[in-house]
Amino acid sequence: MELLKTYLTKAYETKYPKMPWGSLKYLIGEVLYGGRAIDNFDRRVLRTYMDEYFGDYIFDTFQPFHFFVSP
């Protein structure tokens, strides 16, 4: 988790224009949980969850788990 915190902090400080979803999916899916995905089915399930829950669309008000309130 410290790796994610460092990565996101650096992206924020450099005023990165878009959230780096591909990098975050890789860090979370492959680095943090990749060792626990023991076969191709587990990897597919993990990738499906990453695609479902990580993207700019999570800030859309029509998402069922909408949590972001614009200031």
Automatic annotation (TrEMBL):
One Pfam family this sequence matches: AAA_lid_11
Superkingdom assignment: Eukaryota
What InterPro entries does the database record attribute to this sequence? Answer: AAA_lid_11, AAA_lid_11_sf, DHC
All copies of the Dynein heavy chain AAA lid domain together span 2-61
> Which regions form coiled coils?
none
Instruction: Cite a GO CC annotation.
Output: dynein complex
- Give me any GO biological process, just one: microtubule-based movement
Q: Name one GO molecular function term.
A: dynein intermediate chain binding
Q: What is this protein called?
A: Dynein heavy chain 10, axonemal
